[in-house]
Amino acid sequence: MLADDETRQWAQRLAAATAPQETGIADGVVEAYLAGGAQREAILRPGRSGSGSAGIELVTALAAVLQAIDVAGVHLKALLDAEATGNSLNLLALIVGIKAYRASQANRPPQDPPVDPELAARARAAVDRLQTSLEKSGLPAEEAHERALLIIKELLESPASAAAFVRRVSAEAAAEPGAGPPNRSRRWFRRGGN
């Protein structure tokens, strides 16, 4: 399925925030990611294509961001859909808190911004999930953390639109053949009789 204008705009925004050298190719990257299959594989695993060219390597950064958003989709949707996210003061405090967290020294424990504790917990969970996915794509932990914070900051600039974008990326990935039901890590069985 082809990306709509809003999805392309989000790809541009995320490229500008996390991988500025990729803004010119963002539309193609999001199209390939949403197409799935071999197209997605080619941008996520450039080494398998055998090309190893610098152009393909550049694509990988935005593709890794899209995959991280897909992987963290549940946490991002919870953050972006939270009632407290609609409160501009909470959003401002959360963005300020994220900036302060980025600027803090590595040996200081992270401090939650002065916002709704549930909103802060959702933000932390989303950052952690994004970071883990970005690390699996090959980024060093510090760079993955920095990029995760940039993604969250960008998404929080327009939470309603960002929520639709996250749903789109996650929905396309869940529709992949053989993907199975999303976010099901265990089966539930009834105990006892019928």
Automatic annotation (TrEMBL):
Domain of life: Bacteria
Annotated region described as Disordered, given as residue ranges: 171-194
Compositional bias annotation for Basic residues: 184-194
Low complexity: compositionally biased ranges: 171-182
Protein name, per record: Uncharacterized protein
Annotated organism of origin: Catellatospora coxensis
